[in-house]
Structure formats: C-alpha cells, structure tokens
Amino acid sequence: MNHLPSFPITRRVSWTTVVLLAGVTAVVWSPKASADTAQLQTLMQRNNCSACHLIDKRKYGPNFNEVAVRYAGNAGAVAMLATKIRAGGSGVWGEDMMPPQANVSEADARTIAELILALKP
Ligand code: HEC
C-alpha cells in the first residue's frame, strides 16, 4: 500500500464509513431485543420488581432469563404470568414467596409478562 498517497481526506472518509457501518450494524443487529430489554428495565424499576429480580442474575426471585426459558413455547404463559405478577405466590421456583404486587396495573403486568417472555437468553 506504500504506493498509494495517504491524504487526510482518505482517512476522514474511511473513518466516516466505519462510524456509519457501526451505526447500521447496531440498528440491524440489536433491533427489538435491546429496545424491549430497556423497556422491561424501566417497568421493573417503576414497579419495584428490581428489588427482587434482575434480568440475568438471581436475586431473591428467579431471573427473567430463566423465566423466559421455562415458559418458551407455552401459549398460556403471558396470561398466567400477568396474573401471578399481581397476585404473587410461591412454590414454582422454590419456597420463597413473591408478595402480591397489587399496585401494578393489569396493562403493565401484561406488558411485563410479554417482555419477559420475549427475552432471548
Ligand atoms: C419481595 C420480592 C419480590 C418482588 C418485589 C417481586 N417478585 Fe417476582 N418473584 C419473587 C419470588 C420469590 C418468586 C418465585 C415464586 C415462586 O417460586 O412461585 C417470583 C417469581 C416471579 C415470576 C415467575 C412466576 C412463575 O410462576 O414462574 C415472575 C414473572 C415475577 N416474579 C415477576 C415479578 C414482577 C414483574 C415484579 C414487579 C411487579 C415482581 N416479580 C416483584 C419475588 C419478588
């Protein structure tokens, strides 16, 4: 490549190309997944789920990635989890009790359940 003159403009153009490609790649590669995860995080914080749950690590309750794995392909899971989120319960993941989260609206509970089940662990 020694015979090619290295003008500053060349470098600037290729740098721009790299940035553009990175941007395009980011848009193409992490489309819904990351947007959904961000929305789920927001809802978890707003509804105080984060006190006991994380998406990728065990805290007090199961992490949401393992919840997604457990109910993958289960058609009734959204409704079941939306109900459980508001009613609480125990015995599925161990003896620990999830207290009722009656402050969570039905709409939020359903959205959270959908977002959990949409996780791709
Ligand atoms: C005080 C701690 C605590 C809080 C707060 C809490 N959870 Fe839980 N959650 C648990 C425990 C413990 C379990 C396991 C219950 C079981 O084994 O049946 C659980 C289970 C779950 C499950 C799996 C249910 C199943 O039957 O597989 C989901 C989904 C869930 N929680 C969502 C939420 C959401 C959404 C919120 C916030 C609105 C929330 N949790 C708030 C402790 C908590």
Topology:
Elements: H1 8-29, H2 32-46, H3 64-70, H4 77-87, H5 106-117
The chain binds heme C.
The site of heme C has 27 residues, from helix 4 and helix 5.
Could you characterize the architecture of this molecule?
The chain has 121 residues and is mostly helical. The protein has one domain: Cytochrome Bc1 Complex, Chain D, domain 2, CATH 1.10.760. It has five helices and no strands. It has helices at 8-29, 32-46, 64-70, 77-87, 106-117. It is elongated.
Q: What's the order of the H and E elements?
A: HHHHH
Report strand %: under 5%
| Structural class by SSE content | mainly alpha
| Distinct ligand kinds | heme C
Q: Which residue ranges are poorly predicted, with pLDDT under 50 across at least 5 consecutive positions?
A: none
Can you tag this structure with a few keywords?
121 residues, mainly alpha, Cytochrome Bc1 Complex, Chain D, domain 2, binds heme C
